[in-house]
Amino acid sequence: MRMRDQLGVLLSAAILGAVLFSDPASSAEPRYKRSVQPYAMPDVTLVNQDGARVKLKTLLASGKPVALDFIYGTCTTICPVLSAGFASVQQRLAPDTQRVLLISITIDPEHDTPRVMKEYLKQYRAKPGWDFLTGTREDIDKVMRAFDSYVPDKMSHRQLTFLLAPGADTWVRTDGLMRSSELMAELAKAGLL
After folding, report:
1. CB count in 10 Å sphere of residue 54
2. What pLDDT sits at residue 22?
């Protein structure tokens, strides 16, 4: 095959691939809802992936921007997507991954022990600055209720991400799955970057 014919085949394949695998929603409105909400944090002590006890209010008042979500370690649907988003944020912030505090709170405290959470974070190559928290069922339920995200059954959880700028008294709440570029844009829009 002549060089010109090979280039034509390659160009045709590239165009076909772009048409078949393009995301038609990429130029449309976001696939998530955004709102700004005040949330009152309960006074609870949770446990991170290293087994350290952490007062949630103290952690959130660290003076750093915060991105928070609710996940669980054995989820095979939306949690991996949310966690991939947090992993992408850390990659984009490298080498200063601790500039934004990422907090994942389990909604399955009966299963998600510090060992399970540490393994989960390892799968996503989490760096310092990303904590996975668990606690008693009562304390986890208090936190979920505080964020108006309580679900009685982990299988009915929603794809929520919460963003807090240092010193702010309101949170940006996103409801729906976001691409990592959308998450970064929301972080910037919320003044977290």
Report:
1. 17
2. 36
